[in-house]
Amino acid sequence: NIEYKLKLVNPTQYRFEHLATQMKWRLQEGRGEAVYQIGVEDNGLLVGLTEEDMKASLKTLRRMAEKVGADITVLREREVDHDSDEPHRIAEVLVRKVPDDQQFLDLRVAVLGNVDSGKSTLLGVLTQGELDNGRGRARLNLFRHLHEIQTGRTSSISIEILGFDSRGEVVNYSESRTAEEICEIASKMITFIDLAGHHKYLKTTIFGLTSYCPDFAMLVVSANTGIAGTTREHLGLAMALKVPIFIVVSKVDLCTKGTVERTVRQLERILKQPGCNKVPMLVSSTDDAVTAAQKFAQSPSITPIFTLSSVSGESLDLLKVFFNILPPLSNSKEQEELMQQLTEFQIDEIYTVPDVGTVVGGTLYSGICREGEQLVVGPTDAGQFRELAVCSIQRNRSGCRVLRAGQAATLALGDFDRSLLRKGMVMVSPEMNPTICWRFEAEIVLLFHAKTFHKGFQVTVHVGNVRQTATVEALQGKDELRTGEKAGVRFKFIKHPEYLKVATVVRVCSHRSAVPNARTRPPRL
């Protein structure tokens, strides 16, 4: 979402109004963000401006931003070759809308990596604003269970937030801010989904990737251990689910420069392999971070690599610059189309809150949900849907009256019986007339299995927020599958029916390892 402008020097009132309207449209297209390149012709030719013209152009741009309720931040300036003796420069400027009524831009980032690679510590440093002491102090606020604090290992899915205001400044829990204050100040929010690194919690990690619908994935690799444990498996998961991935090499303060370089070379070698076909991009300066953020969103093959330390703070600012500039994958038109569809909310978490009642957490996949709205929830074990009403809505621990497609939130359901709910259910508009299925067909690719995949095999199926054991009823045209082979397979859920949609990405796991990536066909009832 980039606009080229050669110069903006002393425009007439009519021209100024036209420019302001154009900026407003650009911000709507970019869901509250746009990038202006000053000193560049419409065809992309770098002409450059004198210092006087550049100052006047930036002043005009600031006036335009004020008129449409936005702020500007100069990302970078660069001199260009010019025939005259006077130096000519071009400038890249980020325009970001000032938030109103909690309508900030929200990007979800899943955090992957092997156990003890420093995932939770890095998130603690980013969201709390304080460096780690080298013994894991920064991660303590992220843990949800006592055994996690005792072992230092994440076993559940935790959510953390990092905000940026309209001027690009970091907004986090430092200065004793609450989550409500962060939401109030921030124009852009990065929601981190902290996932488990240990192999025995792999199913939890897969559930986080399929259910929480992350926009991006951040793979954390420890500089001193390199690619170990579940690192390759997590990289494969993100790629199979087509989640754009970037890499952070942590703990560089514990290693020599040669060790860090060896780990980076190891990563580059894997990313360039035929199975990955990625283009690694090492980020070592602010200019690199700006370029990486823009190219990463444009091309899924670009994979930025950061090297940093959560103890010394080395290169931590580069990661913040990257998050600040990183644009959303979907534009406003796609968002509008989703909002015009019927309401569909997928349930990921269920709570009982004193004085509030039953509360469910999840993501609104389509439509708009308002307080007091009447929905139906299901399917139950008998395949039925029950009526309920949404009493109140919260996003990032602060009240919200309207929930839009793509946003995650918690919904209070009052005195609705919690025992009738389970993870994997959906809350949909009654007009949708939802259908359920026991059986479904999928085109699968067997990524890895020690033996053969055949009829009667039992696997754990992940389809969005659905996670249930299913039996293989039939393979089309084959008796069995081996590693690397592809086939159409019919599955049957063994416990209760589920709500599935056609062409949804599926993950299937045996009890030993992650197996395939698939897309569902129309369910056979």
UniProtKB/TrEMBL annotation:
Keyword Protease: no
Gene3D superfamilies with a match to the protein in the record: P-loop containing nucleotide triphosphate hydrolases, Translation factors
Entry keyword annotation includes Zinc-finger: no
Keywords, in A-Z order: GTP-binding, Nucleotide-binding
Domain Tr-type G: 104-332
MF annotations from Gene Ontology: GTP binding; GTPase activity; translation elongation factor activity
Entries under Pfam families matching the protein: GTP_EFTU
Matching PANTHER family: ELONGATION FACTOR TU-RELATED, GTP-BINDING PROTEIN 2
Family: Belongs to the TRAFAC class translation factor GTPase superfamily. Classic translation factor GTPase family. EF-Tu/EF-1A subfamily.
Record protein name field: Tr-type G domain-containing protein
Gene: gtpbp2a
